[in-house]
Amino acid sequence: MASLPAAENWTDYPGGVDVDSGNLSAALGVGAAAGTAETEWLRLLVQGGNFSSSSELGLPEASPASSQPRANLTNQFVQPSWRIALWSLAYGVVVAVAVFGNLIVIWIILAHKRMRTVTNYFLVNLAFSDASMAAFNALVNFIYALHSEWYFGANYCRFQNFFPITAVFASIYSMTAIAVDRYMAIIDPLKPRLSATATRIVIGSIWILAFLLAFPQCLYSKIKVMPSRTLCYVQWPEGPKQHFTYHIIVIILVYCFPLLIMGITYTIVGITLWGGEIPGDTCDKYHEQLKAKRKVVKMMIIVVVTFAICWLPYHIYFILTAIYQQLNRWKYIQQVYLASFWLAMSSTMYNPIIYCCLNKRFRAGFKRAFRWCPFIQVSSYDELELKTTRFHPTRQSSLYTVTRMESVTVALDPSDTDNTKSTRKKRATPRDPSISGCSRGDSKSASTTSSFLSSPYTSVEEYS
């Protein structure tokens, strides 16, 4: 997770890199594997990185034999200025695009009534999580990885180890909630959708669970102030094995399990939407709604796949460096860490781009947000996309509801008198196709089409 800053890796498990001494990460890997106490790994810090003398730290003096190799040590992790500049530019772009892009997404949804749907409220939660993680974690962790020194104090050390897991949990479970909501809306459209109150409860529950999962990171975070530098790390009571177990659980809960749920739901939804047409003649409104549903599902599938691809190398990096500790002595391990962490953090900036490219209303909103740019033109169509009164199916689909109820009455009331039957059959006579927009077909096909087409709880506006 993003909460595994480099120094934490350098101190109590071998998952990171050192920027000052080629021998430091190896020494820490050995110390972690042996389950040494804090005094022992501090001695290793002194021997491997030449931070200060053992006597300054109040540690027992190392033997002359153990200190001899220090004269031949070379710093294999020192980077040239041009490489630092390129990494700084790469991380700076991620933070800028992620923060401003997600803030604009939040503004588009909250400032326009037409955009306030169940799906979009979860997108607000997702955007807030991504923007917060980019703003509060990405650059701080990058600076720490470059300098191997903590400049931000004890309180921010706890926050740095705690918040990223919270934010990632909120992000991916917001996507999961959207996937489940899409599943319910498309597979069982006659069931009521989540209300605004229920949506707030789900979002609140996501954050509470995220806080609980990340709390141990905050509880065991500490800083170590030494004469030459300050370190921020997580010291687990039972050592590196407990640390490794915790983060395997985190990877399962914030990566494997939600991706499995989304994979299953979107597979079923995809088969339903793209698997074939409804039998019989269909109406224009059905095709319009089907097309809108496909667009939203396609957009969310791209969002989920992007998240999975971006975070996969980081999780692989953590597992491999924890199991194969000799990787920490590899010359290019720092570059691998910076690249995998950059890719993970870049997941926070892609969603606004995806929304803008694949959704016409978000695209209109971004045009309004950047209308001050000379090359951005907001057309009257773009203005209408966000200002048009939203269609309310519960008020305007009464004809469909009456027709459906009458057709059911004809089918389920065989015991009525002949007069009653004839009267109800007259009332159930199909209307002119020019009124409903649907072509005629057999009753079974029409009934099936109508059930998939619309319900008192969904409309085209929900999907476009």
Automatic annotation (TrEMBL):
Keywords of the record: Cell membrane, Disulfide bond, G-protein coupled receptor, Glycoprotein, Lipoprotein, Membrane, Palmitate, Receptor, Transducer, Transmembrane, Transmembrane helix
Domain G-protein coupled receptors family 1 profile: from-to ranges: 101-355
Transmembrane parts of this sequence: 84-110, 122-147, 159-180, 201-223, 243-275, 296-324, 336-358
Protein's GO biological process: positive regulation of flagellated sperm motility
PROSITE patterns documented for this protein: G_PROTEIN_RECEP_F1_1, G_PROTEIN_RECEP_F1_2
SUPFAM superfamilies reported for this sequence: Family A G protein-coupled receptor-like
GO MF term set: tachykinin receptor activity
UniProt feature, compositional bias: Low complexity: 444-464
UniProt key word Membrane: yes
GO cellular component terms given for this protein: plasma membrane; sperm midpiece
Family listed: Belongs to the G-protein coupled receptor 1 family.
PANTHER family: G-PROTEIN COUPLED RECEPTOR TKR-1-RELATED, NEUROMEDIN-K RECEPTOR
Protein's UniProt name: Neuromedin-K receptor
Species of provenance: Marmota marmota marmota (Alpine marmot)
Classification lineage: Eukaryota, Metazoa, Chordata, Craniata, Vertebrata
